[in-house]
From TrEMBL:
<dbReference type="InterPro" id="IPR045291">
    <property type="entry name" value="Complex1_LYR_LYRM9"/>
</dbReference>
<protein>
    <recommendedName>
        <fullName>LYR motif-containing protein</fullName>
    </recommendedName>
</protein>
<comment type="similarity">
    <text>Belongs to the complex I LYR family. LYRM9 subfamily.</text>
</comment>
Length: 83
């Protein structure tokens, strides 16, 4: 759970790098996704590490493709997700 909270906090820091008018949308999107996966079922095929990797990849996509923010901005998120 602690790792998930660190990842969520880092995603919100990355949201602050986006244009001001898009920040509320992406902050809400991130919150909804983290809340949806807050209680993982032990029988669920989706592992927490897979979800963390997905959060990192999606964050990169938004930063690079949509808003041209440097990928290096997500280095700390990558470190948390990989560790």
């Amino acid at each position: 759970m602690r790792k998930a909270l660190r990842i969520y906090g880092e995603v919100l820091r990355l949201v602050r790098r986006l244009p001001k008018d898009t920040r509320p949308y992406y902050a809400k999107y991130a919150r909804e996704n983290f809340v949806n996966y807050r209680e993982l079922d032990a029988n669920d095929d989706t592992s927490p590490d897979e979800l963390f990797h997905r959060a990192y990849n999606h964050s990169l996509w938004v930063l690079n493709k949509v808003y041209s923010v440097e990928e290096s901005a997500a280095n700390k998120l990558k470190e948390i997700c990989s560790g």
